[in-house]
Amino acid sequence: MSPANHTLPYLLNLILTSISSSSFTPTPFDPGFNITAVAEQAQSLPSHSWEFGTAVQAYLELNSPLLSVFAPTPFPVSNPSSHVPALVYAEQKIILGSGANGLADGDGATGDPASLGVGAVLLGKTDARFASAAASEIDYLMNKAPRWANGAISQRADVPNIWADFMFMAPPFIAFYAADSNDLSLLHEAYSQCGFYREILLFNSNSTSFSPIGTSPTNGLWRHIVGPQGADPGTWSTGNGWAAMGMARVLATLLKAPVSQDKGASCEWCSAAIKDLSSWIKEILDGARASQLDQGLLRNYLDNVSGDGHGFGEISGSAMLAAVAYRMVVHASDMFDETYIAWADGIREVLAGEDSAGNPHVSRDGIVTPAVNPLGWWDTTPWTSGSPEGNNFAVLLYSAWRDCVYASLCKKPPAFKTSGARRSFSVPTPTYLIFGWDVRFTLALFCLLRGLDYCYESW
Fold first, then answer.
1. Beta bridge partners of 203
2. Is there a domain that residue 446 lies in?
3. Lesser CB count within 10 Å: N end or C end of the chain?
4. If we measure between CA atoms, which residue out of 58, 70, 49 comes closest to residue 115?
């Protein structure tokens, strides 16, 4: 499989968007709810290391998409502007330390501080302290963190414990660091961690060989936690979202890492890894799509229709898995057809509406509900006071949908009708030179002559 053919239209549309105004507008389309308010809450709600890391990723994809691994050419990593919102936020939240707490207080977790790793790498381009901290975090994960029998890095620092959540925190950082440092072996480790985790959480296996697609006892849905601490054998929707989006970020990195494209590096395993990751993500999405919904949302535990309270429809897992669907349609359109768009659109449209009691899923001040208790996944009472995860997943959903529109795969929606509904942020714009000539000016002139609408429809 090769990178999707839609990355060039996506890039050109981003360029056109950037040059048609003085600043890039991160929220050009109306999702049916106030995405600006949702994003502001997503930044203010977090209080734990993994929540900060998730917010950094969400803000990066929303406000500075050319720095995200979902951009067409995220590597080599450039020196980002000091005004990138996600990195301003990351610099405030990263606490330089050592060991498992190298980037933040992980409260006994190995993966949670690593969720800030991509931010540290980007900050490290202009501040050596963060570059050193990112390197130390990689060293801890690779050489000091506990491991499961098959080599999976533990989510907990004291004993081997495997959490689906880890998949969003550490493997994408490992892959990003590998791509930035041209380390093919480390890039392979990021892919292998995805496979090891799948063996444990999908097949209850300690194998280092990866089981065939479509042979799991849970229809592709991952268990939440395996190990001696806090075991949770349920198919938690948020856990499946963590795992699927983590693998999507690893896949995007693998597709675009210079070292994986270097013929001299001879990446003999890359093609198989791209196919594996795409298939593993599809397993989860297909399992989720086959699950019975509750008021249009995925259930907290995807297969729980017992009525015991654990299967209520909630927004966190729903938003994250819908975001994954949009990303995969762009990055692997040969495997993810328009039915995935329709499914993700359905969830997005539910978020824009009301629950059965007539309450909006997105409040006036940007709180997205109902969510699972962010610190208690077994809680049967829907969380309505604001979930850091849920709000950030809604931001990830919006960004993935917007980029799917820019790729001319998702239907172009209405633009916001009032300037107050969106906010502009300055983002670094890459330079595209051919024999010293910046092709953006040619594109700008062409589109001014033919009209921006013509360019949008053509590209």
1. none
2. no
3. N
4. 49
Q: How far is CA 149 from the centre of its chain?
A: 28
Q: How many domains does the chain have?
A: 1
Please give the residue range of the domain that contains residue 119.
Answer: 7-263+272-428
Whose structure tokens read 């998949």? 167
Distances (CA, A) of 320 to 44, 97, 438: 19, 30, 37
Tokens of 19: 């040059």
Q: Does residue 437 belong to any structural domain of this protein?
A: no
Between CA 178 and CA 340 the distance in angstroms is 30
Short-list 120, 124, 123, CA closest to 141: 120
User: Which of 102, 393, 41 has the alpha carbon at shortest distance from 246?
Assistant: 393
Give domain status of residue 458, yes or no.
no
> Residue 92 phi/psi, 5° resolution?
-75, -30
Look up residue 65 and give its two tokens. 């998409």
In a domain, 87, yes or no: yes
Alpha carbons 384 and 372: distance in angstroms, whole number? 9
CATH of the domain at 345: 1.50.10.10
Place of tokens 């302290």: 129
Residue 439 structure tokens: 């092709």
Task: State residue 253's pLDDT score.
Answer: 98
Note the pLDDT of residue 175: 98
Both tokens assigned to 7: 């990355």
Kind of pairing between the strands at 433-434 and 437-438: antiparallel
d(CA 313, CA 300): 6
What is the residue-wise DSSP string for 258-323? HHHH-GGG--TTHHHHHHHHHHHHHHHHHHHHTSPPBTTB-BSBTT--SSSSTT-B-HHHHHHHHH
Determine how many CB atoms are found less than 10 A away from the CB of residue 47.
Answer: 10
Tell me how far CA of residue 361 lies from CA of 258, 289, 450, in angstroms. Answer: 42, 21, 41
Point out the residues of the chain with pLDDT beneath 50. 1-5, 8, 12, 15-16, 18-22, 418-441, 444-459
Burial of 1: CB neighbours in 10 Å, binned 0-12, 13-18, 19+: middle
Who contacts 457 (Cβ-Cβ below 8 Å, separation ≥6)?
none
pLDDT of 27: 95
